[in-house]
Each structure stands twice: as structure tokens, then as C-alpha cells.
Amino acid sequence: MTASVTARSGEMGPGRVTQLGVIRSEWIKLSSLRSTWYSLLAALLITDGLGTLFSALHTHRMQQGVGPNGPVAFDLDATQISLRGVFLAQLAIGVLGVLVITGEYSTGMIRSSLAAVPRRQPVLLAKAVVFAVLVVLVSLIATLLGFLLGQRAQASTHAQATLSTPGAERAILGAALYLTLIGLIGIGLGFLIRNTAGAIATLFGIVLVAPILASALPTPYSTDVAKYLPLNAGTQVITTINPDPNLLGPWAGIGVTALYALIALLAGAVILKRRDA
Amino acid sequence: MIEAVALSKHYGPKTAVDDLSFVVRPGVVTGFLGPNGSGKSTTMRLLLGLDRPNAGTSSINGKPYVEHPAPLREVGALLEARAVHTGRSARNHLRAMAATNNIPRTRVDEMIGLVGLEGVADKRVGGFSLGMGQRLGIASALLGDPGVLLLDEPVNGLDPEGILWIRNLLKALAAEGRTVFVSSHLMSEMAVTAGELIVVGRGKLITSGSVADVIRGAGSGAVLVRTGEADRLASLLAGTAQHIHRLAPDTLQVSGTDSTTIGLIAAREAIPLVELTPQQATLEEAFMEITRDAVEFHGGAPSGDESQPAPAGGLR
Known about the structure:
The structure holds 2 protein chains of 2 kinds. Chain A is an all-alpha fold. In chain A, 71% of the residues lie in helices and 1% in strands. Chain A has 12 helices and 2 strands. In chain A, helix 3 (34-64) runs parallel beside helix 7, helix 5 (86-107) packs parallel to helix 8 (168-193) and helix 7 (121-153) packs antiparallel against helix 8 (168-193). Chain A starts with a helix and ends with a helix. The relative contact order of chain A is 0.13. Chain B is an alpha/beta fold. In chain B, strand 1 (2-11) and strand 2 (14-24) form a beta hairpin. In chain B, helix 3 packs across helix 4, helix 4 packs across helix 5 (130-142) and helix 8 (211-218) packs across helix 11. Chain B is elongated and about 75 Å long. In chain B, 47% of the residues are buried. The chains are: A mainly alpha, B alpha/beta. Chains A and B meet through helix 1, helix 2, helix 5 and helix 6 of A and helix 2, helix 3, helix 4 and helix 6 of B.
């Protein structure tokens, strides 16, 4: 038995902890959990299912000659209609981002992870990189598919968009980036709060509840605050017609959302380094 | 070689480890012994850089743990509470651990075979029994073929076969010249596994040394005497002995003196002795003796069993 504990000479090779090795480890971790694939599948089905449904409802209303607010007030942003599933899909992605790290705290896995990489911060960086790459790819598939399915459902309106419609490609890419950034905010909050329920509540407090609270502020503070909140800022990228002048432009909005993600991850990194595991 | 120098750790007002210093040498299994709540697990976490000490330093093979470029190749650790994600298979857990320290994939399969988890390696760890979980922990600790092993309560939850397996494994690892540091609250286990002991209570070092030294140091050292003239012998010994306990009409337990002295006194006074036996303390007794004042959670008074914490006391 002891003979096999000791590695055969040369078998182990040289080795040290490298960022690339930690990234490989985090890929094995993320891809080997069922919850990862369930969350991604949920995000995909929501984005494409709701995109198709909203598009079909819109088409139906156009054919009836009534808009949601009475006759003729038609929403002409065919691209945006087909991507509205993102508003719900962000829940699945946000929860996945939180779980990437709180799942380690709740099971004790974090102690193994940090014993293997005692400098700690490479773990956070690797988690963020692996998550971002995987989620942006899956989200792109979801938003592209959502757009195509949605436009097909709107075909009979003759107002449908195509990939060459101005803003369509930006909206598809931007929606995928938005979903990824919400997930990264979730990772940062997960490192900060360590508890699944607490981190999820905080994430959706910031993303979904804050805009409601902001709208209760007296004008002009209401619009000043509202436009910098991640939901309002980050989802402008899917609007291709008649953007709200009170809100940020598409890429400025994604930039602000990215800033939230960066701040959350940096704060998480500081806490990770300083607090006991 | 593991060195701790004046380690202290507080959690809020509670002191978990208090000015603890010790050295663990290679080539022998060193038991880290103490009652529940005596700071063993905290000390292990401090050694692994998971918690930061409020004072003091520690090093493994001459360097603080966090400064090793490939810590898993230097130090293998089994942490008390299972430190594995329950949703992942054993094999994927080991693969993820191996990747961080650039340990080859072949080593993962070897360790799965070594600990006997081949049949369940691709099942999720959440369904594992305590014993299977401990085997996975051992596989994880041995992944990097480390020269130093830190194992927190490795026999917890194992069946007799598993306990025997760990015992032999630890001895074999030490015999290969590795440093093997094993915490336990089970003296009986350490008595047959460890060569050296470090005994702690309430976070403080109580004693350390070889198993024999620790037993001797506890100094029960009573002598059992049987004689028909127990009364007369007792009165003659009253001056020299510390304590004389009448176990039966013809049996005395004498402490504070040795069998030679008692034998000579009896011979001088022509008292026939039927039995004269120095009593060797067991490690169990020595441990109880040493840690009597350092037990964090005393058992309920009626049972008087100090080795088991009272259920209420165990809740913190």
C-alpha cells in the first residue's frame, strides 16, 4: 500500500500554483456541477421562450389593431420585444453567479480551495474568468436564438427586424453582456456575503428593488439616481428605437453595469484576503 | 517538520488557542490530543493559513504555509468538517484539487484506488457515508505526495476496518520519513497510533513528549498492596505516603511513595505481603489526569463521564 502512496519517480513532475492551473481547476468545478447546466438551460429557455411569446403577443395585438395602451400606440422596437426574456433570465444567471462561491462556503469546499491556493485571490479571478467566458457564450446563443425566433414570430407584422437592422447586433451582444455582468455582480456579492440566501437577496435588491425605490424619490433626483442603477443602465443596450432621453446610452449603460461588477469583485477580493476562511 | 511559535487565536471574547508552541518532527506519528473544544481544529486551520493568528507564527518545512509555491505538494491536509462540495463527484473533486497545483491526472486515479473508492468515484459526494467521505479526504491529502500530513480527526466516523486501515497508513507514512500530525480526542486511538504526543486543553499546551513520557508525567504511580495486616501497614506508611486508600479489608492503594519503600518498611516490620504492584497509568488515565482542569464541556454530574461532552455544553 505504501509503495503506491509515494509517487513513482518523475511521475509528479515539477509544479507550482499558477493562475492557469487555478483557472483549469475552476473550470472543472463549474462544469462538474449539475446546478451550472440547469441554470444555464433555464436562462436559455426563458430568454427564447419569453422572446417568442412576447413577439407573438405583439403580432397578435398589431393584427387586432390595438396596442397595449389602446389603439395604434404600437411599440415599433421589434428587436427589443424579442429580447425581453432577458429581464427574467437574469434571475437564473444571477443565482448561478452567487452559487459559484456560496456553494463552497455552505459545503466547506472553500477550505480545500484556499488550502490549495493560499494566496486566495487567484481563486476569485479564476472563478470570474471561467464564469464570464461560459456565461457570455451561452447567453449569446440564447439572445441570438431569442432574436431569430422572436423575429420569425413577428414576421406577419412586416415590421420585424433582421440582423442587419440598425442596433440589432448590438442588442444581441449587449443583452448577453448584461446577463454576464449580473452574474459577475452575483459572484462579487457571494464572496462578500458568503451566504446563499443573503447574497441572492442583496443581488436582486440592488437589481430589481432599487429601481422601484428610486422612482419614489422626488424629481429630479428620481431620474438622476434611476439611470445609474444596473437594471436601468444595463438594459438600454437592447433598445434600438426611441431611447429614453432620461437614461444612459447603450454602451455607457453597459459600462456602468460593468463598474458595479468590478466594484463587487474588488470588494469580494479584499474580504477574501482579509477574513478567516 | 511543523513549528508553531506562541500561536494565539481569539474569536470575539473567546480564546481558542492561547500562546501555543510546539514542534512536530518527521518520521513518527505525532498525536495532537485534547478534549473537544480545546483548540485542535483551530490550530490546524492556523497552520494551513485558513485563519490568521492574533499572535505568533507557524511554519511548515521552514516556511509559512502560504509561502509554499505548491502547497499541496508539500502539505496534505484532512480537515475535520468535510471540506468537499456535495454536488460534485469524488473524481471531479480530486481533479479540481490536482489542477491547482499542477498535479498530473494519473495521480488522481491512483489515489482513488489507494483509498478504495473506485466503485463510487463518479458518484456525487453528497451521498457518501462518513467513512467514504474520510477516505476521500485522505485521497485528497495524499494527492501531492506531500512530506507533511495534517489530519484532523481522521478516524471520525470510520468502522473498525477503516480505523485499522488509517492506523496502518499513518504509521507507514511516518516510517517513510514523513511528518504526520494527527489530531484526536480519542486517547485510546492515539495510544496505538502515535509515538509522540502534544496534549492541549483550552487552547494551551499541557504537555508533550513520547507516549511513555506523557503517561509517566501524569504520575498516577500508585502502588497496590495486599496484606493480612493492612491496618498496621497503613499506620506505618502514614508518615511517608501521600494518600492511602483502603480498597478492601486486605488491600491498600498507596500513592506518593514507591514499591521499594513500601517493601522495605514491610520487611523491617515483618509484615507478610501477598501482593506489591506498581500501577501503571494507561494513556486514557493519564489524559484524564492531565486535562481534568482543561475540559471545556464537563459531562452531566450523574454519569460523571468526562470523555463525553454534555449535549447542551456541546452547543455553542
